[in-house]
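Q: Please design a sequence for this.
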């Protein structure tokens, strides 16, 4: 399992792993892939600085990447504006009443935190500035192309830029803006996702951008067979996310480990839903009583990004602390149906490589 991207990034396998956990990212990099740390959860640059310093020291000198959330179009942000004041009272009331109906208790006095500010453009830029003071080899943007000046700044530091795309036209736009690597993220994926399935999307994007632009297949990838399929479709590697939620290193990321593990190990591939209730943009989540409540008659429409995330931030904290697998709120892809146990990251990487070799061997055996 070796492509040109392995030589370009100094990795053993073209397996790119998005994760909000520095422990997972470090373990993936140490095992031969490329761990990519999601930064949206960091409200304070000091916390991100500390985390990236930890990554520098705990990857055995292996490369890693950083994922930011930055729209191509710079929104107008008024300095000093209390963004939460823009959230309608109707929405706040709905969230409060829904939590009460679902039996989610309030947090103890003084606990909880403010909404995730990483969805704001200005905060994402601060994330980039901090990251470039460390040693990432890749900056990925979850919302497509970042502004051109951001891409140029990364290139000045010798850092490649990747951007997610859900359609061939988006991929072509990314390339024109200077993006180096396209992540072709299919409908099956967790988190933000488009409407075209991976089997169709990957060859569409590969053909559109041409042989000189590497493409990573994303969405529904959780086994070596699926990696083999992605490479057969023309991708030079894979971008994975959901499967790392089921690793030992992910434990301790805020969600109650037992409740979360119960929720995803019992889920099937049909137990996800694509909705705007998490961030304001379409994202695939685990289907629970929380997601179903937003589909009931009388439920308000989700707010645009970043207001929706700010609206539900405290609710997510309460849900996380409630230890109830029926209410968990978590982005995850349709691959959840294959996530039936919790393993160390190194074991997952080893299984992916072994399964890939077996899949390629089967194909070789049936060639005439």
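A: Design:
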């Amino acid at each position: 399992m070796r492509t040109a991207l392995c030589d370009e990034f100094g990795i053993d396998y073209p397996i790119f792993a998005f994760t909000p956990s520095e422990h997972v990212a470090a373990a993936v990099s140490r095992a031969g892939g490329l761990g990519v740390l999601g930064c949206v959860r960091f409200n304070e640059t000091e916390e991100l600085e500390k985390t990236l310093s930890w990554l520098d020291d705990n990857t055995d000198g292996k490369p890693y990447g950083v994922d930011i959330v930055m729209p191509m179009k710079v929104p107008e942000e008024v300095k000093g504006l209390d963004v939460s004041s823009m959230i309608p009272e109707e929405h706040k009331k709905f969230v409060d009443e829904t939590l009460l109906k679902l039996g989610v208790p309030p947090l103890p006095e003084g606990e909880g935190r403010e909404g995730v500010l990483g969805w704001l453009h200005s905060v994402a830029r601060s994330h980039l500035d901090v990251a470039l003071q460390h040693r990432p080899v890749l900056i990925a943007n979850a919302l497509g192309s970042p502004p051109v000046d951001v891409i140029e700044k990364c290139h000045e530091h010798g850092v490649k830029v990747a951007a997610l795309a859900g359609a061939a036209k988006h991929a072509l736009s990314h390339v024109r803006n200077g993006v180096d690597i396209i992540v072709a993220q299919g409908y099956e994926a967790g988190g933000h996702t488009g409407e075209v399935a991976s089997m169709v999307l990957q060859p569409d994007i590969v053909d559109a951008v041409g042989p000189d632009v590497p493409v990573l297949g994303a969405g529904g990838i959780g086994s070596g067979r699926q990696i083999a399929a992605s490479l057969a479709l023309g991708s030079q590697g894979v971008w994975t996310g959901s499967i790392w939620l089921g690793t030992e290193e992910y434990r301790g990321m805020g969600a109650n480990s037992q409740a979360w593990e119960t929720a995803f190990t019992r889920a099937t591939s049909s137990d996800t839903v694509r909705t705007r209730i998490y961030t304001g943009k379409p994202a695939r989540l685990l289907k629970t009583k929380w997601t179903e409540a937003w589909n009931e008659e009388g439920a308000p429409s989700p707010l645009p990004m970043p207001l929706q995330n700010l609206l539900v931030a405290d609710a997510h904290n309460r849900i996380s602390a409630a230890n109830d697998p029926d209410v968990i709120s978590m982005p995850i892809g349709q691959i959840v149906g294959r996530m039936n146990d919790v393993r160390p990251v190194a074991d997952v990487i080893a299984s992916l490589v072994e399964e890939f070799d077996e899949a390629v061997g089967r194909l070789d055996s049936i060639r005439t």
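Q: Thanks. Anything notable?
A: The first strand starts at residue 15 and ends at 19. The longest helix spans residues 345-366.
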